[in-house]
Write a structure and sequence with these properties.
The chain is 53% helix and 7% strand. By secondary structure, the chain is α+β, with helices and mostly antiparallel strands. It has a four-stranded mixed beta sheet, with helices on one face. A hairpin with a 2-residue loop joins strand 3 and strand 4. Helix 1 packs parallel to helix 2 and helix 1 crosses helix 5.
Length: 215
């Protein structure tokens, strides 16, 4: 690997998945360029972006001639290709749990916590729009299952896998960053004290405010 080559990350800082990649880069202490790409802009992302992401999602990533899309691929590459603290457990059983948590977050938690709770109850009212109560009610029930499952999977210690900060924590944190702005979130998370303590610890890490969305 050319250590002098600076990676480039493409995406918008409001994106949960761009922030996951940025947190990974920050925790590895890697300098990088962030090239803004707004998929919600009029007309969608610029034409040139299709060469980096065939499905016009964010983020995309370049380093030393390697082009990647999909956040999990980017995060694992960054962890394995660069020096710095390891963000994946050395034991296969612990890596399996980490990957299970990441999969759970993608498949079940992201839509519920971010779109169906944060967007409906925080973002829409802020813009003078009306929340869809049916969507919110269903999401709150689903969120209870997501939180309870995460709490059950969490190992003893400050982080989701125990004593080691991993990609599971960095995957969850941006989703919680939006979810915890919703009024219902605090009492829900308070029912899971270990998960609540994890959230407090995550917010206190230097990388978390450093990657906060600007808008």
């Amino acid at each position: 690997m050319n250590r002098e080559s600076k990676p480039t990350l493409y995406g918008a800082d409001y994106s949960v998945y761009v922030r996951i990649a940025r947190l990974t880069l920050a925790e590895k202490h890697i300098d990088y360029d962030l090239v803004p790409v707004d998929i919600f802009a009029d007309g969608g992302p610029p034409d040139w972006y299709g060469a980096l992401h065939p499905f016009s999602k964010i983020p995309a990533f370049e380093h030393d001639g390697l082009r990647l899309f999909e956040t999990t691929a980017i995060a694992r590459y960054v962890d394995e290709a660069f020096d710095g603290p390891a963000l994946q457990p050395s034991l296969a059983c612990e890596r399996a749990v980490m990957n299970q948590i990441v999969g759970l977050l993608d498949a079940y938690a992201y839509r519920t916590l971010v779109w169906d709770i944060y967007v409906e109850t925080v973002s829409k009212p802020r813009e003078g729009k009306t929340a869809d109560d049916a969507v919110v009610s269903a999401a709150l029930l689903h969120a209870e299952t997501c939180l309870a499952t995460l709490a059950a999977l969490k190992a003893p210690g400050p982080w989701l896998l125990g004593e080691q900060l991993t990609l599971a924590d960095l995957h969850a944190a941006p989703m919680f960053g939006y979810f915890m702005q919703a009024e219902a979130s605090v009492p829900m998370l308070a029912r899971h004290p270990a998960l609540f303590d994890w959230w407090q610890s995550m917010q206190a890490r230097e990388s978390f405010p450093a990657t906060s969305p600007t808008s």
